[in-house]
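The following block was generated as part of the benchmark described in Methods. Ligand: nicotinamide-adenine-dinucleotide.
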Amino acid sequence: MPPIKVAVNGYGVIGKRVVSAVQVQKDMELVGISDVVADWRVKMAASMKIPIYCSMPERAEEMRRGGIEVSGFLDGLLRQVDVVVDCAPTKIGIKNKATYEGANVRGSSRGRETRGGGDVFRGPMQLQRINGQKVHEGCEL
Ligand SMILES: NC(=O)c1ccc[n+]([C@@H]2O[C@H](COP(=O)([O-])OP(=O)(O)OC[C@H]3O[C@@H](n4cnc5c(N)ncnc54)[C@H](O)[C@@H]3O)[C@@H](O)[C@H]2O)c1
């Protein structure tokens, strides 16, 4: 079975941990991360050769000026993945829900969106089950 292709949107405290968890799963492949800044975490991801995308096109130039090679925009990343874990600040995740649905990508948010987000926006531990099937064992976040 091909690996589940994963994107992480928002590479902060939680996004970095989610990426680490995804990277140790044998049946998952991290396709890339997306963010809006070129801070130390994003620079670390770049140094690990993780493809970096920009979630807001108007921030891409600033990221490039900050030394990040921007591989493209969030929509392009979404076209390559099965699952996106939204680790952007609270309230941004819910705004992205329609984008994820439009891209036909299953989404999971680390924020509090589960309250109003409906089925596609469960917590990341739900990544253990996609379409009812268990996809990996344990995931320490
Ligand atoms: N830190 C915790 O202990 C904790 C615990 C539980 C839940 N959460 C939730 O997880 C989410 C992320 O929290 P965090 O602590 O990692 O925050 P953080 O501020 O460390 O990271 C957020 C990241 O998202 C990026 N970002 C900002 N705007 C963005 C956008 N429009 N699109 C994509 N990325 C964007 C920021 O640049 C940053 O890298 C929040 O919803 C928070 O409530 C955090």
